[in-house]
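Ticket #4471: structure output looks truncated?

Reporter: J.K.
Steps to reproduce: submitted the chain below (294 residues) through the standard prediction queue, then opened the result file.
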Amino acid sequence: MMVNLQSFGGFLRSGILALTLAATGIIGAATVLGGTAAQAAEGHEKHINRQDWSFAGPLGTYDPAQLQRGYKIYKDVCSACHSMKYVAFRNLVQPGGPQFTEEQAKVLAASVQVTDGPNSDGDMFQRPGRLSDRFPSPFANDEAARASNGGALPPDMSLLAKARAVERGFPWFVFDVVTQYQEGGPDYIYTLLTSFEEPPEGVTLMPGQHYNPNFINGISLAMAPPLQDGLVEYTDGTPMTVDQYAKDVSAFLMWAAEPHLDARKRIGLNVLIFLAVFAGALFLTKKRIWADAH
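Returned output as attached by the reporter:
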């Protein structure tokens, strides 16, 4: 008995599609159960406010002016508790980032004191920072950081925008793949920074804790509200509000976590254009070669 290859191929494709959808459903259910179990246990739904970022989408790019403002927020506010040990001052000059001039970056580096050595006498010493130096940590070690923050260890911010995001669960992550949504980290950081409020009636917090219903690990955290209107001066006319501060520092942290995003998107677009042209050339070549066979 002869087998209809076309029908068999269609049957095979349908089977693969069904298995894929089933696997996706299982993964999605596991994500919902695992990713939101802590939220459900406490009875608090996390509401992440999605923002319009200049770097969103397949053609998005960083806004250098916003990144420069974001660096100012980090330096004047966040750096008192949080380190960025994977970012160097020279990165502030590189294309696709804040794009400070080399002279500006040298001034920023020289404004901090860096421990170096040993010198010829075998002693460590302090010197002004250089472009090659990484951002200094506010604490000598993790134990000192915990001692200064009531036992809580402030996380390093170098990769925070890629490491922090609230799970969206099934079926939303499927749409995220299609729309290329990758801004969950900065959306979460922005939401966290703008969601501090007084605890509702009946909610009692531990000493040193601050109520924030959108904190990823519960409803309170050791960090006090770090931003307030007019806290940091902008010289470019940008509004000096908590909302704007939160957007700017969230964008800066996204750049710190993915500094080559602009280049990656340019390469991806070039690859897609090449593949489209290559596919068209293959189609025309196939049509010409097999023209006499039809």
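Triage note (M.O.): checked the attachment and the full token line is present. Residues 1-43 have pLDDT under 50 and may be disordered.
Status: closed, working as intended.
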